[in-house]
Structures are given as structure tokens and as C-alpha cells.
Amino acid sequence: MSEPFASTRRKFLARTGALGITAGTASPPLAQTAQPPNVPEWMRAPGEPVLWRKYGLPSEFEQNVVRRFNPTRRMKVPGEGPSYTPLQDLHGTITPSGLVFERHHSGIPNIDPAQHRLMVHGLVKQPMVFSIEDLARFPSVSRIYFLECSGNTNTEYRAPVAKSVQESHGLFSNCEWTGVMLSTILEQVGLQPDAHWILAEGADAAAMTRSVPIAKCLDDAMLVYTQNGEALRPEQGYPLRLLLPGWEGNMSIKWLRRIKVASEPFMTREETSKYTDLMPDGRSRQFSFLMEAKSVITFPSAGHKLKERGFYEISGLAWSGSGRISRVHVSIDGGRNWREAQIQEPILSRAAVRFSLPWRWEGGEAILQSRVIDETGYVQPTRQQIISVRGTGPWFYHNNAIQSWKVSPSGEITNVHT
Ligand SMILES: Nc1nc2c(c(=O)[nH]1)N[C@H]1C(S)=C(S)[C@@H](COP(=O)(O)O)O[C@H]1N2
Ligand SMILES: [Mo]
Predict the structure, then answer these.
(1) pLDDT(314) > 50
(2) Any residues with Cβ below 6 Å from ligand 1, and which?
(3) How far apart are CA 218 and CA 181, in angstroms?
(4) Shared domain check, 369 and 270
(5) Least confident of 38-42, 364-368, 388-392
(6) Torsion-angle region of residue 275: left (phi > 0), alpha (psi -120 to 50) or beta?
(7) Which ligand is nearest to the CA of 95?
(8) Which end of the chain, N or C, is surrounded by fewer C-beta atoms within 10 Å?
(9) What's the gap in Å between 330 CA and the centre of ligand 2?
(10) Cα–ligand 2 centroid distance for 74 (angstroms)
(11) Residues 274 and 298 placed together within one structural domain of the fold
């Protein structure tokens, strides 16, 4: 770089040095014609007009920021499978709707909201059927919550196989949801005295069904029709989904069509042979609804490369199904020493926070880890701690272990177990 601006910038950075950013962080040389003070091609004629796209899309230069499949996983039935949120490319805490991970058990139904209905029946005083319009007339609430599949990070239980944080932690999203509190609707139908559980059923070909204790239904459960300010995406359950903040994603039934109130859990497939945790003694942990505190460093993470020594901001996400998070610690030496990370506000219950720690990479080997502590005092465990209680499988739900990323002297970041 020999242009006057570059050298001025170098001097400026050398003088400021407060964060220890060295002059070497200058970007690679741009084409002479595009770089100031020259006039680039895109300034020489008017650009695309207003309404070029009626619905906005990211720049064509962001085409690499997409949901991805797990290349090693086989579809069990048509339309079945997960796609992963590209956490390594995202900032802040809100997951853009188009990048929210997907988990479908039998594809995405194409539902006409005018024809869709929610039936609420069983141990109620007055069974009722609601249209989406009916539900939207009730008082609405908007809240930010994370949603995590309990299978998230299951690939990492035995060996560090994921090539990126997208693969290891990408069954995770954090959105603003709008809808009506489920308690409002249950008040409409009126609960009978022995109403202790509900069954929630989806309108997909899997007819996904889960049992939910009535206490959760009357606490913070929502019937949502909106995600990040607009109608739910078809992938996320359009036109209506159940949302159970802080509980395993599987229970947040998409394309919700029926709620049956009962006195006992229904013992559906998804809460018996699936989504229970087999323990070393052969018994299953049932029910394991809560998603306990977890955190992960998203930058730098596997697949990133540090091009040179100097200042970097380590940054990541932390969340807890039990409420607010109170602290995040970051280690750069594989968990021997911990430093307090900064947590960016707002700190909301059962929502993701962004944490960060300034760091100078001197070019040596480092093992980056983060560890969250939530308001209940719960500390994110190590993998060994989880294994000592739950064994090594064959089920791998609820792996909230501390994640390690190794920085090699060449600046490559890889996924490791310590
Ligand atoms: N009806 C229905 N609801 C469903 C599913 C499904 O396949 N069908 N998948 C569940 C699972 S396993 C998860 S993790 C979440 C995923 O939500 P998302 O696809 O909006 O990210 O939806 C849950 N709700
Ligand atoms: Mo899931």
C-alpha cells in the first residue's frame, strides 16, 4: 500500500494505538479505479430504482451467508432434517428471519391462513375453534426469546467433528416473537379442575405432537403469528406456532392446529422414544424440557483465520432457559485462567446476549473457551462433567458443554476437545 491515504491511516492508527490495533490491519489493495479519491464504476450512473425488489434481499456479495445442511446426515423421510444458522457470520443477537435454522420432521406445509384453524378442546369448559384473525384480536405481546433444538451440538459429544460454529451450534436462533399469551386463550375456553397438561399438534404431515404441563402454558407460553415484525416464515410455522421460551425447540409446535387439555401427559413419540435422554443405567431422563445455560464464541471460531497478530475482539452468544444470564467468562488458555467478558445490554430472560472480550493475539497457540453463569447460579459445564452424569450415549440431546476453538500459530482456527 503506497497511497497517501493508507500511510496517513497507518500514522493515525500508530498514534491512537489505544486498543493495540496495529497498522497491519489495513485491507488488501483495492482496484485502483474503485478506491478513493478515484470515482468507482458504481458512481458513474444511477443505480437500481426504488422497488427494484419489492421484498428486500441481502447484497449479492453476501451469498455465502446462508443456512446449510449437515453434509453427513441422511434424510430419514421426505422433507425431514435440519438446516443450520450461520452464527459465524452474524452480529448482535437477533437472527434474521431468512437465516433462522430449520427443523422439520415432514417438510414445510403450504398453509392458507384463511383456512387454518386452531381447535382448543378436552378438559375445558367451552371447546372453541379460532381463526388467525380471531387470535390476532386478543391483546398481543412481543418478546425476544431464543429457540434451540435439544439436538444442537450433539455432533460434538464424542469427538470435535464440526467444521464451523454453524455446524456445531447452528440449531439456535433468537427472534422477536409477537402473538397472544396461551394463558389468554385458555382463559377464554376455561380450564376444568383436573387440567394438568395439554397436547399441542402441528398441521404438517408429521402431525408433530408434544405434551406441555399446564404451569408452563399459564406462565410464558405464547401462540405466535409474527417473527421479527412480520408474519412467521413458512419454515417457522406460518401462520401459527406455539412458543415455549427456554424449553427444547421440539416442543414449540409449528403450524399449530390443535390443543387438547388433559390430566396426564400423552406420551407421544417425540417425548418417549425421542427427546428423552438415555442414562448410563439404561433409564431415560424424562422429561427434559429445560434448555440449560450455554454459550459459544462465534468469532473467532472454526473456519475463521487470523491473518496477522494484534488486536481482535473475541465475541459470542450466551443464553439460558432458566432466565437471565449474569456472567460470561472467557479463557484463552483452554480453561486454566478465566477473564470476565463484557455483556452487551439488554439482558433479557430466556434470550441471547452478546458478550465480548478484547484480546491481543501474539501469534502463539491459544485455546478459546467461554463459560456462562445464569441468574440461578448454574455454571455451564465441561464435556467431562456432562459425560460423568449422563454417559456417552447413544442419545445426545442437551449437550451444553463448554466449546473449545484452537488458534494455531498460523492463525487457523479449529474445533478441538481439551
Ligand atoms: N409441527 C412441527 N413442529 C415442530 C417441528 C416439526 O417438525 N413439526 N420440529 C420441532 C423441532 S425438533 C424444532 S428444534 C423446532 C425448530 O423450529 P424452527 O424450524 O422454526 O427453527 O420446531 C419444532 N416444532
Ligand atoms: Mo429439535
Answers:
(1) yes
(2) 100-105, 147, 149, 173, 202, 204, 206, 208, 235-236, 249-250, 252-255
(3) 8
(4) no
(5) 388-392
(6) left
(7) 1
(8) N
(9) 28
(10) 16
(11) no
